[in-house]
Amino acid sequence: MQKTALVIGATGLIGRNLVFELLKSPHYSQVTVLVRRDMVIKHEKFKQIMLDFNQLDNFSDQINANHIFCCMGSTSAKTPNQDNYRRIDFEIPLKTAQIAFKNGAESFLLVSSMGASTNSKIFYSRLKGELEYAIQQIGFDNTFILRPSLLLGNRSESRPLETISQYLMRVLNPAFVGPLKLYKAIKGETVAKALINAALSDKKGYHLVLNDQIFDWAIAVK
To answer: Domain 3-218 class?
Structure first.
């Protein structure tokens, strides 16, 4: 039986790859995205809802799918105000998850970050940890938290420091084997494939997927 998917954070590196993979997958009959701007995608399975994320309650009846994917996130450079950062990285994903759960969603899949921890002294990592914990408490049949390392791929916005890091990691990546695979840079496409395989798996309950495990989940995308 085909599933339906809903994606927030669909315009980012992982999110955009995820949308294309979902549209290609025979396991999904509809792919809905919540976005602030037009993604300019034409596909029979694609449904786009353009909205102000401050008004999520006004769209609650449309936040409804079997699998909910959250790839949402900002950067300190793009969002220097911590209150705004918290709204984007914590409040919007959590609100979306709560509405989707009330509407009967089966699974919630969250892209978090390596180092996420409620005890972290780093604001970014602590916020990611707080979101992980909050999502876990909601009670979805299946909850997958993925913590990728440095992401490889072309972003729509310019991130000079990340571009330099990506170049260095492409050179060094072959050395990241065995235990070091936990820190190996990973393609946005790889994370997207892992998300789909996790969503379609028969595993129930809460699952934390670290970077080295994401590579394994991405193999032979369904």
So the answer is: alpha beta
